[in-house]
Amino acid sequence: LAGPWVRVLEECWQSTLARNRGQMLRVDLTGVTSIDAAGQACLAAMHCKGAEFIAADALIKAIVAEITQGPHPDH
């Protein structure tokens, strides 16, 4: 989840939010092998709006844990 793929994820996320207001959304990260700083920021913003994440890779699980358990000034 890096480079131009972050923007693709943001666009998909915004489109999904518009169609599914009030529903809890899960983001499947099982195919993701790395996440850059912009990707982490995107996931953190999604988490602040209620997204849950599914991860299989140990590194991605650690990043998700950091995002979901860390302090968020936006909350």
How would you describe what is shown here?
This protein is mostly helical. It is 53% helix and 8% strand. It contains 3 helices and 2 strands. Strands 1-2 form a two-stranded parallel sheet. Helix 2 (37-48) packs across helix 3 (58-69). The radius of gyration is 12 Å and the shape is globular. The model has no long low-confidence stretch (mean pLDDT 91).
Topology of helices and strands:
Layout: H1 4-19, E1 26-28, H2 37-48, E2 52-54, H3 58-69
Parallel strand pairs: 1-2
Strands ordered across the widest β-sheet? 1-2
Envelope shape: globular
Task: Kindly state the percentage of residues in helix.
Answer: 40-55%
- Largest sheet at a glance? 2 strands, parallel
Main attributes of the structure:
single chain; 75 residues; mainly alpha; two-stranded parallel sheet; 2 strands; 53% helix; globular
